[in-house]
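Chain A, query sequence.
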Amino acid sequence: MRPISLLLVFFAFMLGATPVMAKDKFLMSRDQQLSYREAYSFAQKAGKRDIVVGVDVLSKDDQKRYLGGQNGKLTALEVAISNDSRFRLYLNEITLVDSTGAHNQKPLGLDVVAKMVGPSGGGNKNSLHLSILRNNLNEKSLYNQIIEPGQTIQGMVFVRTENLVPGLALRADIQNLKRLVYLDIAVPALP
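Chain A, predicted structure.
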């Protein structure tokens, strides 16, 4: 009789813990992936030599869904790069330029984003949330990588909300690995 009562207590505990876990946005964000989109499908896009770069500003709700948290001081940009050329490419760098083209700024680093979005304080739950956030940032961010012919890469780039002004453009520096040719493709970040 004793094992049955322990089993009932265990199931009651699990049923009681499930609603709390279901409300935890950081835990729910682990399974959320960016919807696959070709760069051609973005409203803000630019192309050069069969290479297209698309940019879209993610809403606050989308940022919470993908990362588990959101800080009003930063904005996530969804970026996709489609390679329809015959050559292998390498994404060297992403920068943000203003309308004059004189001021280049780098997107925020993932450590800065983790500090801004992540939970404050200590404790086991906050440590768990921070580790989930760091994993989400590593999986869902756009980083320097090779783009094969016919491939589209996609990810998030983070900027300070105060820097997201009309006239701001995202510039992707892309290298052709066969001819050592560099392409700069600038896409307006805002419509």
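The first strand starts at residue 44 and ends at 48. Residues 119 and 127 are 8 Å apart (CA to CA).
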